[in-house]
Amino acid sequence: MITEIAVVQIIPGQEQDFEKAIAIAVSTVLTTAAGYMNFNLHRGIESPSTYTFLIQWRSLEDHTLGFRESDLFVQWRAIIGKHFAAPPQVEHWEGITI
Amino acid sequence: MITEIAVVQIIPGQEQDFEKAIAIAVSTVLTTAAGYMNFNLHRGIESPSTYTFLIQWRSLEDHTLGFRESDLFVQWRAIIGKHFAAPPQVEHWEGITI
């Protein structure tokens, strides 16, 4: 399992619209993707127009190939992308058990 | 509850030492802090010398005042800080239920 961590700045004033949009995008698009496991949304305290979301995938390829190369990604971005002030910063992370 | 997300670049070659050190720092220092709730460690797939850790606190002040202003923070940094290639980037986040 890997974690996608995405940080995205939303157009100021559109925070509530973005939260509604991503709720729809998760329930109608993301949860149907192969290898999708979990989603968490966080809003910045120091930067209230910035959100971090963490998505857990079964494998890196489930995200980078299976999801991003599919029509589901087009649908996902169509629902949430209009609220982005800039392209999201996305990286992938391996969980470390300590 | 709030989430502290810290991103830190480790001196290349010291990744395993850092993982051992942070395990000790969590078990001996962090878990004794008032308001500490949970810790997760992630290692970068694109940037394997970079780690993200997420710490959940009961409140923002439990971290920024209670922990950071205490001797526990000095002990925490003494254990893990020697492996840092640069100061960590730390921000606080509010969980959003969608």
Specify the CATH class of chain A. Alpha Beta
Strand order of the largest sheet of chain A: 2-3-1-4
Mean pLDDT of chain A: 98
Shape annotation of chain A: globular
Instruction: Work out the helix count of chain A.
Output: 3
- Stretches of chain A where pLDDT is under 50 for at least 5 consecutive residues are none
Q: What percentage of residues of chain A falls in helices of 4 or more residues?
A: 25-40%
Proportion in β-strands of chain A: 25-35%
DSSP strand tally of chain A? 4
What is the CA–CA distance across the termini of chain A?
16 Å
Count of individual domains of chain A: 1
Cα Rg of chain A:
13 Å
In the CATH classification, which architecture of chain A applies?
2-Layer Sandwich
Which two chains form the greatest contact, residue counts included?
A: A-B, 26 and 26 residues
Q: Give the oligomer, counting copies of the same chain as homo and different chains as hetero.
A: homodimer
Order of helices and strands of chain A: EHEEHHE
Tell me what you see in this structure.
- The structure is a homodimer of 98-residue chains.
- Chain A has 98 residues and is of the alpha+beta class.
- The first copy, chain A, has one domain (2-94): Alpha-Beta Plaits (2-Layer Sandwich).
- Helices cover 33% and strands 34% of the residues of chain A.
- Chain A contains three helices and four strands; from the N terminus they run E-H-E-E-H-H-E.
- In chain A, strands 2-3-1-4 form a four-stranded antiparallel beta sheet.
- In chain A, a hairpin with a 5-residue loop joins strand 2 and strand 3 (50-57).
- In chain A, helix 1 runs antiparallel to helix 3.
- The first copy, chain A, starts with a strand and ends with a strand.
- The relative contact order of chain A is 0.30.
- The mean pLDDT of chain A is 98.
- The interface between A and B is medium-sized, with 26 and 26 residues.
